[in-house]
Design a protein that fits this description.
9-stranded mixed beta sheet; alpha/beta; 9 strands; 359 residues; 10 helices; 19% strand; 29% helix; Rossmann fold; globular
């Protein structure tokens, strides 16, 4: 499974006329084309609002986290700042005017609970700030009624063809709008992550926003780092996910059920949109529903763009044993990769191992 053939996946380095992309300037034009193509899947992201501001609601030190400072902000954004949601930020104890700015890891998965203390300690120990928001404040996870369909962001941006994944990616972007105004945040070293459906949103956020220095989806599977055309045993298909969660995607995407091979793209296109910025997929070998073997194929295909741009080291993939979760091991892998890509610290582990290689 080391090689991709032209019949497996569409070539991300062929333009609309079938010509081969050969340099960075041509890639910039190709990138704009790919951003339009993936709107078939996610819809167009909601508009970028004129401003995003934040009001501090409370702030205190947490002794059990090494006296890290926890601050909760209410962000106001959207047209006339009429859309609000919460952002929680943990900053290392060294945070302050004399300590310089910290890289930050941002996740939207607080709807499943804030990260555990051991994960928070690991993030803070390495000098990163940790920002967390509840993506379901942006858009409901599952819609059951017309009222729920029009809750959240749809109230202020009605009529768009975007699904929840695009709305959540928009939420990541608005958090970054605000984080870059904080004096203790290094705006050039922002990483985004998320697990499962949150990983799909994080990947889309990184694909669409070049302010994100590192994109790290975890077990993101179908509609994320996985593959529509190349399915491993027991993996989720396009039909599975669009039938069960239609509102995560653009309404246009339903037309591609059972037509994966006719799609003009696959998920390596979304990964390639991150290039040449850093990208890490963290995966679990036992998480068959998330298509770990197909994910390796999108990794190989997207790596061709990084190779063209001269930054092959910036795309990584890492596998562990076990199932569908984002635990301490996954976060440590993410932070090792971030230390390498954002801070220049050589990693002790490799991020290019193929666990599916024959022999």
């Amino acid at each position: 499974m080391n090689q991709i053939t032209n019949t497996d996946l569409p070539d991300v380095l062929r333009d609309a006329d079938g010509r081969r992309i050969t340099n960075a300037e041509e890639w910039r034009r190709q990138r704009q084309r790919l951003l339009s193509l993936i709107e078939i899947e996610y819809g167009a992201l909601p508009p970028i609002p004129p401003t995003t501001t934040g009001v501090e609601l409370h702030s205190h030190l947490i002794e059990r986290l090494g006296n890290a400072r926890h601050t909760q902000y209410q962000l106001a954004t959207g047209p006339n700042e009429n859309f609000t949601f919460l952002l929680d930020v943990l900053a290392p104890a060294s945070e302050g005017a004399s300590s310089g700015a910290h890289p930050v890891v941002l996740t939207g998965d607080a709807c499943w609970g804030f990260v555990t203390d051991d994960i928070a300690v690991e993030v803070l120990r390495r000098g990163y700030a940790l920002a967390q928001f509840i993506r379901t404040e942006i858009a409901p996870d599952v819609y059951h009624t017309h009222a729920e369909r029009n809750a959240g962001l749809c109230r202020v941006y009605p009529g768009g063809d975007y699904g929840a994944l695009a709305a959540w990616a928009w939420g990541y972007h608005r958090c970054i709008d605000f984080l870059t105004t904080l004096p203790f945040v290094d705006a050039a070293r922002i990483a985004v992550t998320g697990h499962s459906r949150g990983g799909k949103a994080a990947l889309l956020a990184g694909a669409a926003d070049e302010r994100i220095a590192l994109t790290a989806p975890n077990n993101s599977g179908c509609g994320g780092a996985g593959c529509f055309r190349i399915q491993g045993p027991g993996s989720e298909t396009l039909k599975d996910i669009v039938t069960r969660f239609p509102r995560w995607f653009s309404p246009r995407f339903q037309a591609w059920i059972d037509k994966e091979r006719a799609l003009p793209f696959d998920q390596h296109f979304v990964k390639a949109l991150v290039a040449p910025r850093a990208l890490l997929s963290t995966e679990a070998l036992g998480d068959l529903w998330a298509n770990p073997s197909g994910t390796f194929q999108t990794h190989l295909a997207a790596r061709e763009v990084y190779r063209l741009l001269g930054h092959e080291e910036r795309i990584g993939i890492w596998y562990r044993a076990g199932g569908h979760a984002q635990g301490l091991d996954d976060w440590r892998a993410l932070l090792d990769f971030a230390d390498w890509q954002l801070l220049g610290k050589a990693p002790a582990r490799r991020f290019d191992i193929n666990p599916f290689a024959a022999g």
